[in-house]
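Please, structure for the following, as C-alpha cells.
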Amino acid sequence: MPTQDAIPEAIRCISEHNWGIPLAHKLMAGYGTTIVPSMIWNPRIGIAADYDRGTALLRDLLNAVGQGLEDDDEFAQCVEKTTAHLEKQRAGCFILETGEIVSIADDDPEAAVQRLVSADIPAAVAQAEAAIAGENDEWLASVRADWQEHFASFYSNALYFSFPG
C-alpha cells in the first residue's frame, strides 16, 4: 500500500476507463476502503482496498449480470478477459488512482475522493450485494442493459502511467 514516504516496490496494472470510475472499479475498491497518497498526483487522492474481496464481489456480480446475457458473446469475452487479468494481476490490495477523473469533475479532488469513499463506493457495494442475493432485480437489469459502461475497461499489464517493478 502506498504511504506518504514510499510507493510499493511491485505494482501490477489492472485497467483504465474513459471519463469516469466504472462500477467494476468501485466494487474492486469496496472492502477495507481507505484513502492513501496517490502514486501519481500530489493530493491525497488514492484509494486502497482489499483486492481479494473486491475481486470476489466483481466476479459474483459478473455472474449475476451474465444470467441475463447468456447469448451475448461480447459480454462473455469481456468476462473472460476481465477474470483472467484479475487472476494474473492478483495482489494484496487494489489501488484506485482517481486523479484525472476527480480533477475533471470537481474543484476539490480530495473532497471528491472522500465522497467516493464515504458514499459512492459503499452504495455500489450495497447495490451489488443485494443484486447478487436476488434482492435488487431492477438495479441488476439496469447494469445488464449498460454492461459495457460498467465493465468494458481497457485491461492491460501496462497502462498510461508506468510504475517501478
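Strands lie at 15-16, 34-36, 46-50, 93-97, 154-155. The chain has a mean pLDDT of 85.
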